[in-house]
Amino acid sequence: MPSIRPVSLPTDHAALDHIFRTTSGPSFKPEPAATISSHLFCHAYAALEPRTSLVLVDSSNTPVGYILGTPDTRAFASRWKREYAAGLDLAGIARPPDYAAQGLPRPADFESSLLDLLFNSPEELLNLHVPSREEPLAGTWGAHFHVDILPAYQRQGWGAAMVEEMCGALRAGGARGVHLGLEGRNEGAARFYARMGFRRAEVVLDGGASGEVGRMAGENGTVFMVKDLVEGV
């Protein structure tokens, strides 16, 4: 019977990597994108936020899913460059220049853009760049998380159990609210999170370009959903 527990490093590192690589989208499969993005979306969380990094484990205590988050996205972004990226060595992958600091144009190709996010611009990855007068993401709903489960353990209720466990861990870490971003066409995920108590952010995020609250502009603009973790948020 699977169960949920906090992440344990370095023991769980290889299993976390396997989960990420198995569940990631096609654009993240080739190297070096796979290695770079595993640090962007997986390993940084486990290293910096072990109290809000949870794993679903099988009967042999091997992780078969994870839910990784932080109770304070702004603080997490600040620590990312100082405590994680500064000491990161990706064998065979050169560290990029700090484009903004050196007045250089940012890279356009996919792998270089990922490297820039990892080493120079985690704030963009973490949605701190999303404009809003009300600051819904980094302010009121300052926590965030993401979850991945191996296919053999999906559609068995473990996703809901992990989200509930994570919300409790974020609340214990001082978070008053949590946000997450979904691909605009992913209606199934939107329905799932609605059942978990999330709602679309009720604020304009893109200056009205999309014509909707809670959505970024574009053909498949990201939809942001939020959940209050304490009363009176």
From TrEMBL:
Pfam families: Acetyltransf_7. Signal peptide: none annotated. One of its GO terms (molecular function) is acyltransferase activity, transferring groups other than amino-acyl groups. Residues 2-230 form the N-acetyltransferase domain. It comes from the Eukaryota. InterPro entries: Acyl_CoA_acyltransferase (IPR016181), GNAT_dom (IPR000182), MshD_Acetyltransferase (IPR050276). This is N-acetyltransferase domain-containing protein. It comes from Cladosporium halotolerans.
